[in-house]
Amino acid sequence: MYTRIAQLRTAAEFRGYVRSLGVDIPIDDEVIPAPDGALARSYKLKDGRTIGNRFCVQPMEGWDCTVDGRPTDPVYRRWRRFGRSGAKLIWGGEAAAVRPDGRANPNQLMVLDYTIRDLEELRSTLIKEHRAYHGHDDDLMIGLQLTHSGRFSRPNDRVKLEPKILYHHPLLDKLFGIPDDYSVMSDGEIDGLIGDYVKAAGRAYTVGFDFVDIKHCHGYLGHEFLSAVTRTGRYGGSLENRTRFMRGIVEDIRSECPGLRIGVRFSSFDMPPFRPGGDGVGRMLEYRDDKGDYCYAFGGDPDRPGEVKPDEPLELMKIMKEMGVELVNFSAGSPYYNPHIIRPAWYPPADGYQPPEDPLVGVARHIRVAAQLKAAASDMLCVGSGYSYLQEWIPNVAQAAVGSGMIDFAGLGRSSLSYPELPADALAGRPLNRARICRTFSDCTTAPRLGLVSGCYPLDDYYRSLPEAEELKHLKKTRAAGADTGAAG
Which residue, among 160, 127, 131, has the nearest Cα to 141 in the 3D structure? Predict the structure, then answer.
């Protein structure tokens, strides 16, 4: 089996093990604290706006808003912890739906007229916490991620899909029970949705967010546009058509909110769905169309499913640059059909599978592809993903990647749930608190898959003390027993 990160006690051991896997991950032997280290360097945007360091907090939602899309106490707690982290770039806080039917769950944050004041208070809460712990906020940048969940919309029931699809996918339709005669979104519906994004951006701008992210990742609607090669009409087929949705949103935001910056987080590569084999290890599902290729993975090689082909992502970078997109965040795949691609992990979520590759191979893939795309757009702010699995070695690898110009910012997602202060500790030269480092137990994914709120149940005392913690243990045991006996689950 694969070697666990915690067993690699020196940078030399890490470097040697990575080399034995046949991949490359940059790593520095020592982390240089502020003010001299690469992670402590400020980043200056074209207009002179400065971001104070090179750590970024990725969007992390908790399935814990009210049913009308307002934040609750756990949401405010999470945003305070993001502010406390020491990271100077906050990429969205969490995904916020632009309209009710686009929610990934019934308790997702929404960006509507009646939630404006709540969003303002969320942002203010984060800033106050950041100022209290770090003295000032003039070099802090906060965005809001705007989303529609598309194929994975569950606006009324945590386990019942109410999908909005752009085309019929030969594998995903079967996996998620979408019938052949299910209607796809019309061009007219898409035109109207563009307006909803623009209205949501205006609301974010009104309450002071520095930028909005037009989410195009993880199998949600924006990402599905990028793979809609079999769709006919204005929004499918050619890459020009498949980016028409993004371009329409960006153009209208720039017209109506000229002072608002725009970012895009997109899945820079994808693969066919994976499902567990008889041994529990993930296996890529096979598919060939009448042309002999798999055309549904944006950033994937249609002739060699499972391999990366960056041609279209590189072209997308040019398109975004021409549109005036200033910030880009590279992710990959989807947690719904190939979770090991987006979140390399030792322990899979309950509805997942054992990793088909050493998770460090997945981390290396993230870093390599992000570096390729960054090299093609050196004047755009670029954030990399996939760092949380590195655990103790997050600062060493992040410093090496940023210091060598492979990426501008190291993005931290699930590791921010258990140990939000990791950036602050690394920048201050303090030893990391190993008891709080995310070990990728995946309960933050398993819990919402089973209908519970998301959080770090193993390491965060707040979640460990909730009644849901015992319920989660019970549900995991029940699910595991069902799998052992061959029962459906």
Answer: 127
**Structure tokens given for 66:** 């009210």
Interatomic CA distance for residues 249 and 225, integer angstroms: 13
Q: What ranges make up the beta strands (E) of 230-277? A: 261-267, 274-276
Distance CA 11, CA 19 (A): 12
| Predicted confidence (pLDDT) per residue in 318-372, tens digit | 999 999 999 999 999 999 999 999 999 999 998 899 999 999 999 999 999 999 9
Residues 478 and 110: their CA atoms lie apart, in Å, by 33
- Asked if residue 152 lies in contact with residue 161, where contact means CB atoms within 8 angstroms, the answer is yes
- Write phi, then psi, for 22 (nearest 5 degrees): 80, 20
Question: pTM here?
Answer: 0.96
Output the six-digit token pair for 441: 């137990």
pLDDT band with cut points at 50, 70 and 90 for residue 479: confident
Task: Name the DSSP letter for residue 82.
Answer: H
156 Cβ partners below 8 Å, 6+ apart? 106, 162
Cα-based distances in Å from 131 to 41, 80, 136, 286, 404: 19, 11, 5, 52, 30
Cβ atoms within 10 Å of 83's Cβ, excluding its own: 28
**Of the candidates 152, 257, 132, 244, the residue with the CA atom closest to the CA atom of residue 200:** 257
Q: Please, is 100 exposed, middle or buried when counting C-beta atoms within 10 Å of its C-beta (0-12, 13-18, 19+)?
A: middle
Q: Where are the alpha helices (DSSP H) in 278-420?
A: 311-323, 339-342, 359-375, 394-403, 415-418
Summarised one tens digit per residue, pLDDT across range 371-380 is 999 999 879 9
Cα separation, 159 vs 141, whole angstroms: 35
> What phi, psi does 384 have (nearest 5°)?
-100, 155
* Cβ-Cβ contacts under 8 Å for 458 (sequence gap 6 or more): 418, 439, 441, 443, 464
Measured distance CA(285)–CA(276) in Å, rounded: 10
SS3 27: coil
